[in-house]
Amino acid sequence: MAFDSVVASRAPLSADMTAAQVIDLAGAPCPVWTAENPDRALAWIYVAPADCMAVDILTAR
């Protein structure tokens, strides 16, 4: 599944990083993107649980 619209990473990526490290660097999903892509946002929150605005938007529906 592609997570192509998530906030850009805060640190440079390298080929020797694990998937978990890349997800941790990505940060929380943007609230606007979450509202437009609830299925992808839900998958993102499932993979990388976080208390963020995306959770509020997903539970408001």
Overall description:
The mean pLDDT is 79. The chain has 4 helices and no strands. It has a domain at 25-59. The two termini are 23 Å apart. It is an all-alpha fold. Helix content is 51%, strand content 0%.
Q: How would you summarize what this structure contains?
A:
The protein is mostly helical. The protein is 51% helix and 0% strand. 10% of the residues are buried.
Question: What order do the helices and strands come in, and which of them pair?
Answer:
Elements: H1 19-26, H2 31-36, H3 38-47, H4 53-59
The SS-based structural class is mainly alpha
How big a fraction of the residues is strand?
under 5%
| Average pLDDT reading | 79
Helix fraction by DSSP (H/I, runs of at least 4): 40-55%
Spell out the helices and strands N to C: HHHH
Number of strands: 0
Shape: elongated
Largest β-sheet summary: none
Helical run tally: 4
What's the gyration radius in Å? 12 Å
Give start-end ranges of low-pLDDT stretches: none
Instruction: Quote the distance from N terminus to C terminus.
Output: 23 Å
Record keyword descriptors for this entry.
61 residues; mainly alpha; 4 helices; 51% helix; 0% strand; elongated
